[in-house]
Fold this protein.
Amino acid sequence: MAIIELRDVSFAYKDSTVLALSHVNFSVERGEFVGVIGPTGAGKSTLCWTIVGVVPQILRGEFSGAVFVNGLAANETPVARLAQIVGLVQQDAEAQLLMTDIEKEITFPLENLCLPREEIDKRLNYVLDLVGLRENRLRHPFYLSGGQKQRVAVAAVLAMEPEILILDEATSELDPVGAEEIHDLAGSLKKQGKTIIMVEHNIDELARHADRIVVIDHGEILRDGPTREVLSDVDFLCGLGIYPPQVTQVAYHLSRQYGVQFEQFPLNVEEGEELFGKMLRA
Amino acid sequence: MSVDDIVLKTEELYYRYPTRSDYALINVNLDIRKGEFVAIIGQNGSGKTTLIKHFNGLLKPTRGRVIVDGKDTRGLPTSELARSVGYVFQNPDHQIFAETVKDEIDFGPKNLGFPPERIEQARQRVLAEMGLQGLEEEMPFQLSRGQRQRLAVASVLAMEPVILIVDEPTTGQDWRESISLMELIYQLNKKGHTCVVTTHNMNLVSLFARRVIVMWRSEVYLDGTTQEVFAQVDQILRAGIKPPEVYELARRLLPDVRLDRPIIPEDLAELLVKEREKIHR
């Protein structure tokens, strides 16, 4: 059974006549890594919020359809209960951080769950190592770089041991290397069996780990398929104002303008080097 | 080009935040000339925002000098520097506040004490330049997003700045929105405005900038044409920057080709086809 399932979900925020989500059918299998892309205002964050129950329980409006997360109806299950299954990290990590040092930031929610001390320590050490912040554990989040803050936010969410991790534009404030770190972390969590949903403008990075890409605009799912298939449709993506990976665009121009035949378009530099190298030698 | 063309100069610029013991800028020496389109890039914490804040006088050097449009910033209030340096916000809605388009555009020039005829002239000029004629009495928030963006740029231009600074045009915006802002800036650059942009989006840098300055550990690490800087893949990775994929591909597949201008995917496709013809000839 799918770990997340949306059936014919529509939603309009209170006092708005526009559908933020329109008849969305979407499911995610356990252990999948799904990338979500689309222009600003497409409904990407609203989609994330329906999965964590914030829409429609806290952000209210006209809701129809059904959302199931691990078999629970997300529009009725208390948000705090869902938070133990799904962790959400948003764009502005700073807004999420509230304690005076990293260690407290991570242990605070665990203490609220009344977990035993040994369990809390075990989880704390595990996530600190995972995000590479063990040495900074007693620092105030204020003194961390943007990338480190974002990693604290991820660590705090992971300490809750959610099965599903949602990253909603969690890398948009980060420099290229910081963004790469978060993507690689998400990739390694997938390998450990977590289910990952990543909303992202940085398509180059997303292409490296996502199994599947969903394209949303005006609250509707326009495409939903394997990463390579969706990203190879360069015309479609550019029409939506989305910039596909440059290496994929190079293959597109070679085939479109110069008649070069490819069995499939490359998604990263390594694949591009191999394919274009073959073309040069052919 | 003569020294008179230099609109922005830093001389042995050092800066230390009052609460810190280490320097945020170390011995920065830069000459930026009239009409240049410069991107300043670097990791979070590399010093690029600190540097930019010296250009509009929000920060003053701890040591060394910053000369903007011939004036040493140390003796000048930020309001005076606003005459020379226009700062374009990422999101037009963070900047726009007036009730009408006219008031929005006139605000800066009025504060700078321009006489009424000059305010009128400046307004007419920027309305035409930004394609906003006939909208003087409209409420800014009823304009389309594209129009609001042009209004935000227009109100900066009305102060007749010599240098335009755009700080991270991608935050909170998608690719299309970022591109439309950069296109506007690019048009102004073609008319002679000097443009300085900071961004983490290297694809954007490679589309628009002609010169790239890489900051690393509070120092200027690389400074050259866009293609020169991005071709130094190993050095640039060390500074925490990933060059656009086309440069990495060019380095691996076309090691003997010297790039004479910045490249985008179309260009690399063309270069690859040329290389194939050369090999098979």
In short: DSSP finds 13 helices and ten strands in chain A. Chain A touches chain B at residues 39-40, 91, 145-147, 172-180, 201, 204, 241-243, 245-247, 249-250, 252-254, 257-258, 260, 268-269, 272-273, 276-277, 279-282 (CB under 8 Å). The two ends of chain A are 47 Å apart (CA to CA).
